[in-house]
Write a structure and sequence with these properties.
209 residues, single chain, mainly alpha, globular, two-stranded parallel ribbon, two-stranded parallel sheet
């Protein structure tokens, strides 16, 4: 969002309450959208627990470890089937109604857990489909572009960019399996990747203060 604002975009933000066990991330989303001055912020409710198949949406334990995961380890059980495809479909509808031609998505394909819907080829394929699937695309009145400014950045580079932009990182949340108080577990894949990013960036994680 901060990168989009820096580049002169008005931000119509979209978050998802999809039955995730870490729904506390929506509290962070609201704070961030408000603090950065979102033109609008909507939270779409979709219950992906209907399908399950993931440690984030079913009664499956979130894996815990001592080392950050990598794409070479295979697709982990925290992968939510078709999640980014579903999210982008909602964003596409929101963009068309809002007459927006640009969608920003924070996926990353460098320091990540190997999710197939975070890869550049997926984003490119969805963008091509999106321009075939909408009234504005067919009529030629609007061409949609999906921006993924973080996709080739390491977690350390993302942390440094956030610091350079003056962002309050204490508002952010990454943990897949937070405690009842919302505190991060510090041992799930997402926590470990975040921890490594802050360490490599030489920045103290304010969320752990």
């Amino acid at each position: 969002m901060a990168l989009a604002l820096r580049d002169g975009f008005d931000c119509y933000c979209l978050s998802f309450d999809y039955g995730q066990r870490h729904a506390v991330e929506l509290v962070s989303a609201r704070k961030i959208a408000q603090s950065l001055g979102a033109t609008q912020h909507k939270i779409a409710t979709i219950d992906l627990r209907l399908f399950g198949g993931s440690a984030l949406t079913a009664d499956i334990s979130v894996p815990k470890g001592d080392h950050p995961p990598s794409a070479a380890s295979g697709i982990p059980v925290t992968y939510v089937p078709a999640r980014n495809t579903i999210f982008l479909a909602f964003a596409l509808a929101y963009a068309e109604v809002s007459k927006a031609s640009d969608i920003f998505l924070g996926v990353n394909a460098i320091d990540y857990s190997g999710y197939p819907d975070c890869r550049p080829e997926f984003i490119s394929a969805f963008e091509r489909m999106a321009n075939l699937a909408t009234k504005t695309g067919v009529e030629g009145t609007q061409r949609l572009q999906i921006h993924t400014p973080l996709i080739t950045m390491s977690k350390a580079e993302i942390v440094r960019a956030a610091v350079d932009l003056g962002l309050d990182l204490s508002m952010t949340h990454s943990c897949y399996d937070p405690g009842e108080d919302g505190r991060p577990c510090r041992r799930c894949d997402s926590c470990l990747l975040r921890q490594r990013g802050f360490i490599e960036a030489g920045v103290q994680d304010p969320a752990l203060a």
